[in-house]
Design goal:
Helix content: 25-40%
Order of helices and strands: EHEHEHEHEHEHEHEHEHEEEEEEEEHEEH
Largest sheet: 9 strands, mixed
Distance between the termini: 14 Å
Length: 372
């Protein structure tokens, strides 16, 4: 049985690192929880950290957050589909928006529900995902300010999420200037310039973040400690808050090359066959493409090598088996963001929390004790 663990002490340590960093720079920040796919066990671990601005891209996940913590500020972080407007106003306190027609519909629903809905208007700054074009900003904001039950609390942007455009001091200075223009033109005050994500942290640490940027939305750094610019882990952070544990279901010494007439495998790839008499020990694990792509898996034990997988099995080269694996052993893997996302979305992978003593919270500890 493969399962995923969240390490509570390491999550806390990463959170404390970020709290200190953003606190020193007087920056507000919220936790992006979309990675957790609405899993209440893991969401509760995030909620207990105490920062109750939680951002997600699924209404069902925001509902789960509200059920766990009614006082949390929930933020919907993509332009809403029109079919979701009623649920959006019910479960999201804040939403990111780029379309006037959608904001008008939100306004009408907010009036119907007798609620005030907060919005951040996203600006296109070069990465070409969502965002109002810069030449349209003034007219766009002017119209939104007239709508009932809508309050604009921020101007924001997304960078690096589609085409890999990196945040730069110049781009973020421009965004801060747009905020000033809108405030002067409309005689208002806008609370946030929300342009910080995990990829922006190195700019902050290096001292290149413009003072106007005062709000960050953080997921990957919290769960993986990732410096996306250096492609490394931030010093003082943990990259193994989340780990996959997959069980060995077969272990045998086998040839390193396939034999027989070769055709395309289920992925449309034909293997290359070479004459070789070499062998190695191979372990088959109880996880596969149905749960995660092998490219996102990194064995904690560097002596192990991922060879490939099928829909529900993973194959490792374990060499001479210096790791001492046997049928029933568990192999631990560090994860990349997209891999963890796939695992969280898989109903076949159990999820458990490791507490401060290293004990598993959930049914797994009891099941393993029975199995010996």
């Amino acid at each position: 049985m493969a399962y995923l663990t969240l390490n509570r002490p390491k999550l806390q340590a990463n959170f404390d690192f970020l709290e200190t960093l953003f606190g020193e720079h007087h920056i507000d920040w919220g936790i992006t929880t979309k990675l957790l796919c609405g899993n209440k066990l893991f969401l509760n671990e995030v909620i207990r950290l105490g920062r109750l601005e939680l951002l997600d891209s699924r209404i069902s996940n925001l509902r789960a957050i509200k059920e766990l913590s009614p006082g949390a500020q929930t933020v919907y972080i993509k332009p809403p589909a029109s079919a979701l407007i009623e649920d959006l106003v019910t479960w999201a306190d804040v939403s990111f928006n780029t379309e006037l027609e959608t904001i008008r519909a939100i306004s009408a629903e907010a009036v119907r529900q007798d609620r005030q809905h907060l919005i951040i208007i996203m600006i296109e700054m070069g990465d070409l995902r969502e965002g109002v074009l810069r030449e349209d900003i003034e007219a766009f904001y002017a119209q939104v300010f007239q709508l009932p039950n809508i309050k604009i609390i921020g101007i924001g942007t997304n960078l690096n999420c589609l085409n890999g455009v990196m945040p730069s001091e110049d781009k973020l200075i421009q965004l801060g200037l747009y905020k000033k223009i809108i405030e002067l033109k409309n005689n208002v005050e806008i609370q946030w310039v929300s342009a910080g994500t995990t990829v922006t942290i190195p700019l902050l640490i290096a001292g290149g973040l413009p003072q106007a940027i005062n709000h960050f939305r953080i997921g990957e750094a919290l769960f993986f400690g990732q410096d996306l610019v250096a492609e490394d882990t931030f010093a003082g952070m943990h990259d193994d808050v989340l780990e996959l544990h997959a069980q060995v279901i077969e272990l045998a010494e086998k040839p390193t090359m396939p034999s027989g007439t070769l055709g395309k495998n289920p992925f449309g790839v034909t293997a290359e066959a070479e004459s070789s008499g070499s062998t190695s020990h191979r372990a088959i694990l109880d996880v596969g493409y149905l749960d995660i792509s092998p490219q996102y898996l990194e064995p904690v034990d560097e002596r192990l090598e991922v060879i490939g997988g099928s829909s529900d099995m993973l194959v490792l080269n374990v060499g001479e088996n210096e790791a001492g694996l046997k049928v029933g052993s568990y192999v631990k893997f560090r994860l990349k963001y997209m891999g963890a996302l796939h695992l969280m979305n898989s109903p076949y992978i159990d999820k458990f929390v490791l507490d401060e003593s290293g004990e598993q919270i959930g049914e797994l500890a009891e099941a393993e004790a029975v199995a010996g």
